[in-house]
Amino acid sequence: MIRGRRGPIPLPHRTVTDLTRFELTFAPLPPTASGRRPTPAPVDGVVVHRTSAHGPGGHPVYTDETGIIRAEISDRGEVRMLVTSVHQRPRRPSACRPLPAQSRRAATRTGSQTGENGGA
Hints:
Radius of gyration: 19 Å
Strand order of the largest sheet: 7-6-5-4-3-8
Order of helices and strands: EEEEEEEEH
Number of strands: 8
Structural class: mainly beta
Strand content: 25-35%
Helix content: under 10%
Distance between the termini: 44 Å
C-alpha cells in the first residue's frame, strides 16, 4: 500500500495469470545404483513462455523454445508437467519463478546479436 492524501492506496494486484514467462528449476536426479549422478549439473533450469493453449486443468500452457518442455501453470503457481512425446517421463520442477516480460527488442535478437555463436 502507498499512503496518499486521503489514506492508503492499494497497489494493483498482479496475479500469476498476468505473467508470460517463468523459470522452472529441477533438482538434480538421485544417484544411480553405481553411485553416479546421471547429469553433471547440480540444478537444471529452463525458461518457458505462455502459449495460447490451455491444459487439462483449464490453466495456461507454457513451453520452452524447443517445444519439448510443456507445463500447465495455475494462477497459484502450481505446475503440472505435460508429456510431449510417447516415451517422455517429465520430472516435476522443484521451483517455479515468474520472470519479468521481455521487451520486444530483446525478444527479437538473433544469436549473433546476443553474443552467442561467436558473434559480436
